[in-house]
Amino acid sequence: MTAQLIDGKLIAQQVRDEVAANIAKRTAAGKSKPTLAAVLVGERVDSATYVRAKGKACEELGMGSVSRHLPADISQEDLEKVIKDLNADKSVNGILVQLPLPSHLDEERVLQLISIEKDVDGFSPLNIGRLAQKGREPLFVPCTPFGCIYLLEQAGVKIEGANAVVLGRSNIVGMPAALLLIGKNATVTVCHSRTKDLANVIRQADIIIAAIGKMEMVRGDWIKPGAAVIDVGINSKPDATKKSGYRLVGDVNFDEAKEVAGFITPVPGGVGPMTIAMLMKNTLRAAEIQDP
Ligand code: NDP
Q: pTM surpassing 0.85?
């Protein structure tokens, strides 16, 4: 193996320890504990698991958490009322709406309603708009791309002037990751399902952020020697040696890529743990903004 492994589990734990220490300092100074409200609509098992994991992280870090579990057939109006109530609730510092929402609901309108000071997922059009504008700062950066950039910086990868290729252009990962890299003075190419000759585009990259949800698609010989590879993908690969019958792999063929890359994140244990760590960091920031 030539690549240096970027240990997301360890780096996420350092972020969490730092957040917990800051919360302890704030509460010792008589301030209320930062509190995160999670809104879950419907019965999707994966969404419920993510919301539970976020609540558990809050508890571990000394943060407050509340959850609003709403029926799958809730009306747009009733959901908007829940958001407005949470906006007005002074005991709540951060609000996240677990996505995706059932298809009858207007996701954009819901996200737009979240007060910008409480938008700890960073998905409101106002936060994303600020991220996209030169010289403007969003209050909150979306957690997964925030985690990707944090991992690069912690590993000592030079972003300024680098050729970066982002695979995927979703609102929650690819697009904000590309905007963050541009903000840090990388030269960025964004690839998607209509990109031609993906392998050759990737071969130019000093930094690759892969977020396409296609199991082990990026092959070792697509990677420039020494490049930094951040693998966001989470895919289940059948594996008879596991009790569950599968194991998690990324969008990059790790065994091939680790022989060529300069830096690489594993799956699991790379970007995954960073997402919740950055959510905790954002929620602390929300409390600091609202109650300096
Ligand atoms: P989406 O499905 O929303 O977006 C996938 C993107 O990949 C789209 O832009 C799509 O292009 C592009 N794409 C799909 N197929 C190809 C292809 N063959 N070649 C090039 N581009 C392609 O996914 P997400 O952004 O939500 O998630 C991506 C992955 O990251 C998933 O595996 C997901 O599980 C994981 N993830 C991990 C997180 C973590 O915490 N580690 C958090 C969030 C996601 P087009 O726009 O043209 O359709």
A: yes
